[in-house]
Amino acid sequence: MRTGEFVRSGAGAFAHQGRHFDIAGRFTTPRGPQGHPVVIQAGESDAGREFAAADADVIFSKYNRLDEARAFYRDVKGRLARHGRSPDELKVIPTATVVVADTDEEAAAYADEITRAQVSPQTAIAHLEAVWGRDLSVYDPDGPLPDVDPEPDSLILKGHSVFRKGRAETARKWRELAEERGLSIRELVIEVHGGQTFVGGPRTVADAIDHFVQTDGADGFVLVPHLTPGGLDDLVDRVVPLLQERGVFREDYTGTTLRDHLGLRPRTPVKEDA
Ligand SMILES: Cc1cc2nc3c(=O)[nH]c(=O)nc-3n(C[C@H](O)[C@H](O)[C@H](O)COP(=O)(O)O)c2cc1C
Fold first, then answer.
1. How does DSSP assign the chain, residue by residue?
2. What pLDDT is attached to residue 209?
3. What lines the ligand 1 site, CB under 6 Å?
4. Tens-place pLDDT, residues 238-262
5. Staple partner for 219: which of 91, 121, 131, 135, CB 3.0–4.6 Å?
6. What pTM does this model have?
């Protein structure tokens, strides 16, 4: 066995020798009904996308604006062939929040109310501190952005994907946006972090979700309720039936495992000897 290689052999025996572990033994639990577990990759650097293209079944996406989502989708799907895989072997799944009301106008007002409740004045300052890497508690959330520059070496939230391009650049972009639109700290944070993905009456939301998927923005969504409990009720009761009517949402489960529900094919385990 080469160093770093993970080998399973008959009846659940395994052995691994690498930089961090040197282990051998026997699994005491049987393989799950779905065979290989569903591997979900959360990350969007070049290395993260490549890792997903080579090995994952699902990649999360942080993009829920359609143009950005489609660029991400095209990029990751385009990487699969190099790894001997077809595009449908990796599902691209962003998170989405959905706010439904009787009319588009009512839904917009309700979404605005929810977003303001989620981004309280304190939350707005905390978001800003994560980028600036320093204590900003003396600043007024309803006032302009701080005139001090971010602390480049602060350890607060290092590694978070927002900061990949660097604190200074994120701060510069946020300042530009705030100045251009005359936004306070809280309004800016709502603009950047807040906001619900799909907002409208049931038909508007069904159209938007369907359009997002049909035009290659995503293969599906991780739905995040905007309120707990009950935050998905309107979606389930009023939008899902419309999606089912147009044949883009299942009416019944066709399998019993997560792998089945995601429409993923069975996958061969890492390596198996007879
Ligand atoms: C869209 C997206 C979703 C993520 N979801 C999670 C998560 O659910 N749990 C978690 O611990 N980290 C999550 N992360 C954080 C990443 O796993 C982490 O920042 C990782 O180091 C980023 O990898 P990258 O260098 O490829 O961007 C997520 C990151 C992104 C971009």
1. --TT-EEEEGGGEEEEESSS-EEEEE-SSPPPTTSSPPPEE---SHHHHHHHHHH-SEEEE---SHHHHHHHHHHHHHHSGGGT--GGGSEEEEEE-EEE-SSHHHHHHHHHHHHHHHS-HHHHHHHHHHHHTS--TTS-TTSPPPSSPP-TT--TTTT-GGGTT-HHHHHHHHHHHHHHHT--HHHHHHHHH---SEEESHHHHHHHHHHHHHTTS-S--EE--SSTTTTTHHIIIIIHHHHHHTT-S-SS-S-SSHHHHTTPPP---S-B--
2. 97
3. 42-45, 47-48, 60-62, 159-161
4. 999 999 999 999 999 989 999 999 9
5. 91
6. 0.81
Distance 144 CA to ligand 1 centre (A): 30
Q: Whose CA is nearest to atom 4 of ligand 1?
A: 42
Domain ranges within the chain, ordered by starting residue: 40-103+197-261, 120-193
- The atom of ligand 1 lying closest to the CA of 60 is 1
- State the fold for domain 40-103+197-261: TIM Barrel (3.20.20)
